[in-house]
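Hey,
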Amino acid sequence: MMCECARFENQPSPHDLVAEILIRWPGAAAVFLRYGMACPGCVMAPMMTLAEAAESYEIDPACLAAEIRLTTAFPPHT
């Protein structure tokens, strides 16, 4: 039986550092910008988790993580 969290093992989670998310999933930058977040290029990105960043902008961390998962799960067609 697969652990529930294993489904998202290769996807961003609220516990990941923002900088790591942006390196592994560059498409996440568009999500941050859509929410008006300055995370791409922010000096705090290497030290802040996705949950901490979301909370500092009064955004639900679970919703932000879910939207990033959706954005990164389906790369754009070229």
